[in-house]
Structures are given as structure tokens and as C-alpha cells.
Amino acid sequence: MNALRSGALSSRLKAWRPFRGEGDVQRWTGISAEAWRQLSAVLPGLPAEPGPAAARARRRLSGFSTRALAGGDWGANWSGAAPSPRPAIYVTAHIGSLLALRYLLRSRGVAAASVIAPYNFDRTDAAAKDALFDRRFPIPFPHVLSSASAQRIRSSLRSGSLILAADLPERDTFPARLLGAGVSLDPRPFRLARLTGVPCRAAFVTLPGRRWEVTLGDPLPPDESAARDGFARILEEVAARAPLDIDGLVYWNRMVRPA
User: Fold this and answer.
1) Percent of the chain clearing pLDDT 90 (strictly above)
2) 181-185 and 174-178 as β-strands: parallel, antiparallel, unpaired?
3) Maximal C-alpha separation, the chain
4) What's the confidence (pLDDT) of residue 233?
5) In the predicted model, is pLDDT for residue 10 greater than 70?
6) Residue 81 half-sphere exposure toward CB, CA atoms < 13 A
7) Which of 240, 239, 249 is nearest to 28 (CA)?
8) Is the pLDDT of residue 14 over 70?
9) Average pLDDT over residues 123-129
10) pLDDT score of 8 more than 60
11) Which among 1, 5, 83, 200 is least surrounded, fewest beta carbons within 10 Å?
């Protein structure tokens, strides 16, 4: 436990360490300061020089997660109706912390698993964090499921909930707005909710201040088109409140990177 506390202290100290150059932007966000400038040119809701501020935001997200894991305090400001322990689909995007979203739901007794791509299953460090979290909040339900296993995804909704990101579409898409620009989203989470008959809610965790901000939308309409539109509105609102919490690497690859 002392090692955990030491790690949390180290994380807090790192969060206040001054930036030494553009290399820190790359290290914390996955893209360079120049890439952030390119991204701000296509996302008008970002400031003109977003790199350093985005890196500080990403560093704070990491520090808060480390501290919460060490101390077990996942206190947050919740917006919207409390999550239900009954199965649901929580649709999100790469804004804020998807890890904190899963942990915050599970800390409230929600058996929630993140659906991730097979290429993200090198999870040595992530699995260690999950095991540490489970010491305080044990739930007999997996933390992650592979998006390649459609049958397991559907069957898991009999006993638990899923967290699905809608901003990495593969083929079919629908339009939305993000920070003043158009973006294509993935309809599959809403289709899955319709086919399985479970509630579908927009869910985001951002860190604009000194506490996690959890945004949980009301259950979206059962009609797939209306559900997509409802999610798109909440996504636009959340991004406008916390523009520097977007995952720059994801959106630079989607909106700027040459084909």
C-alpha cells in the first residue's frame, strides 16, 4: 500500500512539473504540438495553440486515475440519472477518460465492460490496474471484451453492461458535430441496443476542474435514428465543455492525417 501511495504522490508531482518543450506534448498526447495546430485548423472549437494545454489535461487525467486507484476514492460530480445495475449499453467517445468511465460505473455497482478492438488486447499494464481496482470493487464480470466476438458481446448483455465508443466507425456512418466541425460516427452501438432491447445511454467522463465530471444521458429513444441524433447532441455539448479533453491522437488520425 505504501508503494501505491508513493505512486500517487509521484503522479501528483508530475502533474505540476512545468513543461520543458514540445516533446512533452508528444509524450502525453501521442501527437506533436504541430499536429495539434493542424487539428485546431479543422476543429475551430480548439484554441489556436492547443498542444501544451491538451498535454496538461491528459497529464491530469492520468494523475487523477493513479490517485483514485491508490486511494480508492472515485468521487465525481454526476450529471443525469444514476446508473442502474441492470444491463445497458453506455455509448461514449474518445473524450476524457474511458478508463475512468468504466471504473466509475463499476464503483457504483454496475457490471460494465469496455468493448475494444483485438489489436488493443496487449493489456499487461491495464490488467494490473484492473486487478488493483477489483480489490475494492469486486464484480464477477470482465473488464474488457473483444469487438471481434459478436456472440459474446450479445450474451454478456444478459448479465452486465457494455461501454462502446462511437467515434471509430468502420463502414456505415452517420454525421455529427464536434468542436465546430463535422465528424462521422458509428451506428453499431445503437443498432445493438435496438436488437437486444437493452437501454442505451450516452456516457462521458471529463476532468475540467478538480473532480471527475460524469455525464450520463437519459435512456435514448428505442428508434435507432432518434437514438443517434440524441447521442450526437450530447457529444457536441460535452466536447464544447471540455475541448482539451479530446484524444488528439484519435482525431488527428481521423481528420488530419494524410491517407
Assistant:
1) 81
2) antiparallel
3) 51
4) 98
5) no
6) 10
7) 249
8) no
9) 88
10) no
11) 1
pTM value > 0.85? yes
What's the pLDDT tens digit per position in 143-174? 999 999 899 999 999 999 999 999 999 889 99
Distance CA 122, CA 99 (A): 15
Beta bridge partners of 201: 90
Cell digits of residue 39: 487539428
- Could you tell me which residues are beta bridge partners of residue 175? 184
C-alpha cell of residue 83:
446508473
Question: At 33, which amino acid appears?
Answer: A
**Nearest CA among 197, 97, 202 for reference residue 154:** 197
> Can you give the three-state secondary structure of the chain, one letter per residue?
CHHHHHHHHHHHHHHHCCCCCHHHHHHHHCCCHHHHHHHHHHCCCCCCCCHHHHHHHHHHHHHHHHHHHHHCCCCEEEECCCCCCCCCEEEECCEECHHHHHHHHHHCCCCEEEEECHHHCCCHHHHHHHHHHHHHCCCCCCCEEECCCHHHHHHHCCCCEEEEECCCCCCCCEEEEECCEEEEECCHHHHHHHHHCCCEEEEEEECCCCCEEEEECCCCCCCHHHHHHHHHHHHHHHHHHCHHHECHHHHHHHHCCCC
Per-residue pLDDT, averaged over 200-212, amounts to 94
User: Would you mind telling me the total number of residues written for the chain in this entry?
Assistant: 259
Residue 73 pLDDT > 80, yes or no?
A: yes
Q: Say what the alpha-carbon torsion angle 173, 175, 176, 179 is, to the nearest 10 degrees.
A: 100
Cell of 205: 467522463
The pLDDT-based confidence of 209 (bands split at 50, 70, 90) is: confident
In the block, which residue shows the cell 462521458?
Answer: 204
